[in-house]
Design a protein that fits this description.
- The protein contains 22 helices and 11 strands.
- The chain has an 11-stranded mixed sheet, with helices on both faces.
- Helices cover 50% and strands 11% of the residues.
- Strand 10 and strand 11 form a beta hairpin.
């Protein structure tokens, strides 16, 4: 008996300890800022100009910046505590941040970056890994992890990051938001810590394509012109086949959205690898010289090798002196260590430049001034703590498709695609170097249609080869019910309308749509739907109650009172009907 009692106390103690550990873990995991911020601050915009001058273009927007951008009075930390410790505060704010503040936006903080902005997973063991708001069990992507998380968590309207080999595009894809990499050298890099100068760009994040576009117009200093429609949108079929996203669903929805806005004649299909192999002859020769067998790597796989070689070489040139002097604690596998530690010769650098020039010319010839290339942004993110994020294979695989824009200098935007809630999916659109405005305008024009087509593609599919109209109508009704439950009234109306088109003799469809119409104040439509419901089903008490409500709001008090009374005939104990009838009766006393 004593032994049994002792065991009970042991089990109870273990249980309490487990609860405490779990509570501490949850407290640690749930942070108000999702672990995105390094430093809270506030840079306020100048006063609004007096009328009739227009207000500042970014008025009312807040933003954060990755901890690679100088802000006067603060040390730029570069994701590494030894860098923070050994560097002085910035003496001036970098021009790109000043431009945004002068444009009316308020800067509210600096955010976490990967250790020395080298990784692309978003993990930082010095400052903690920001929590991916959309997919908390997965990495947020990097190196501009905090900037992406702040926008995804709605802690800022937009944010700035550094994009070398995907540093904005990949975290945008992982966190389910928009990420823009502009044409190389189109925005000043002054006041930003370099990783690889010939690849680095200032990039930005937003949850809304219109904000993404507003920020782009300010940063790129673009005057207003009439938007142009694309004449060709190329689907890189080979890139989609290599990716781990549901390529068929994504491309099908994307093509339908293109056809809806621009027409079927705009869609083109391209094998991008074959095109690059043909138009960039220096690529295979250079990779063979570096010991990379052409037969084992696709042309795009060869591009990413060139990009990583350039990145490592330029990173060492920028930071080896400090690294050798300070010998910092660097958690991530860095560009100056390991078997990749080699220096490119003058001939190698010249060959890399030749490859880049050939690639830019090839894409300019393909896209011209009015073409768009569609590719996957990257594969879905790995889970937090996965060993793969520390491997060279992960770096190469994840940044492969980023190498197209990074090496060519073209502009690219990562576009969130929500097919399901299990994992993020991102589609990228690429335009020629200098085509930034055209790319942003195309996204703005296309995104609503793409969202609509993605929603259609996300609908549950039946296993039967064909289903009846009645079954389709029931499916639409259930989707309408879910939208109604989520208080998405217009979507609910759309689904109920679709159900009615498929089966116009079902009273429930009209009654449900009437309920949604009541929620948005469309009382005449609600009354009409209830009347049709009653025509189809004389004993539908909900229809009488809803029509009574609609008629009362329209001022048809006697008719409303009659509906409430008839509802009481059908259901004598209905409180709503009794209260409604009593309320209206008093109007006529």
């Amino acid at each position: 008996m004593a032994s049994s009692s002792a065991n009970l106390w042991v089990l109870l103690g273990l249980g309490i300890a487990g609860v405490l550990l779990l509570t501490n873990k949850l407290k640690k995991a749930v942070k108000v800022d999702f672990g995105a911020f390094i430093q809270r601050l506030q840079l306020l915009p100048p006063p609004q100009p007096a009328p009739p001058k227009a207000p500042h273009p970014l008025t009312g927007l807040s933003f954060v910046v990755s901890d690679v951008f100088d802000i006067e009075g603060f040390v730029t930390g570069f994701g590494n505590p030894d860098w923070l410790r050994t560097k002085d505060p910035a003496v001036r704010t970098c021009p790109v941040v000043s431009t945004l503040v002068d444009g009316g936006a308020t800067c509210v903080g600096k955010t976490v970056v990967d250790d020395m902005a080298l990784s692309i997973s978003g993990e930082n063991e010095h400052y903690g890994t920001p929590t991916n708001p959309a997919y908390p069990s997965r990495v947020p992507g990097g190196p501009s992890s905090g900037a992406a998380v702040a926008v995804a968590a709605k802690l800022a309207d937009f944010s700035l990051g550094i994009d070398t080999d995907g540093g904005v595009r990949i975290p945008a894809a992982y966190c389910g938001i928009f990420g823009f990499r502009p044409s190389h050298a189109s925005i000043s890099l002054s006041g930003m810590i370099p990783v690889s100068g010939s690849l680095d760009t200032v990039g930005w994040f937003a949850k809304d394509p219109s904000i993404l576009r507003r920020v782009g117009h300010v940063l790129l200093q673009l005057p207003f012109v009439t938007p142009r429609n694309p004449r060709s949108i190329f689907i890189a079929d080979d890139c989609f086949k290599l990716s781990k996203i549901p390529a068929d669903q994504v491309t099908r929805a994307f093509i339908k959205s293109i056809e809806a806005i621009y027409g079927r004649q705009v869609v083109r299909h391209e094998n991008l690898g074959d095109y690059i192999k043909l138009k960039v002859p220096s690529l295979s020769a250079f990779n063979s010289k570096q010991g990379n067998s052409e037969g084992k790597l696709s042309p795009i796989g060869q591009l990413v090798n060139v990009m990583q070689l350039i990145k490592r070489d330029e990173f060492r040139a920028n930071h080896d002196e400090w690294i050798n002097s300070i010998k910092p604690t660097v958690v991530a596998a860095t560009a100056h260590e390991g078997p990749e530690k080699l220096t490119l010769t003058a001939d190698d650098i010249q060959n890399c430049n030749t490859i880049r020039n050939e690639l830019r010319s090839a894409l300019s010839a393909l896209l011209k001034d009015d073409g768009i290339l569609a590719i996957p942004t990257c594969d879905p993110p790995p889970k937090l703590g996965a060993k793969e994020v520390y491997t060279e294979e992960y770096l190469i695989q994840t940044s492969t498709l980023s190498s197209i824009a990074s090496l060519s200098g073209c502009c690219q935007v990562a576009v969130p695609v929500v097919l399901n809630e299990k994992q993020p999916i991102s589609l990228s659109l690429v335009a020629r170097h200098g085509g930034d405005r055209f790319l942003m305008d195309t996204l703005q024009n296309l995104y609503a249609s793409l969202t609509e087509q993605i929603e259609q593609a996300s609908k549950p599919q039946t296993s039967h080869k064909s289903i009846s109209k009645e079954e389709s109508a029931e499916l639409a009704k259930e989707q309408g019910n879910q939208a109604f439950k989520d208080k998405q009234w217009q979507r609910a109306i759309g689904f109920y309308s679709e159900a009615i088109k498929l089966n116009c003799n079902n009273a429930t469809f009209y009654s449900n749509r009437a309920a949604a119409y009541l929620e948005i104040g469309s009382y005449a439509q609600a009354e009409a739907d209830c009347t049709q419901t009653i025509y189809l089903d004389k004993k539908n008490i909900k229809a009488y109650l809803r029509r009574a409500t609609a008629r009362e709001m329209l001022g048809y008090y006697r008719e409303a009172m009659e509906d409430f009374r008839y509802a009481l005939v059908l259901e004598p104990n209905n409180k709503r009907a009794a209260q409604g009838a009593d309320r209206l009766r008093k109007l006529f006393q």
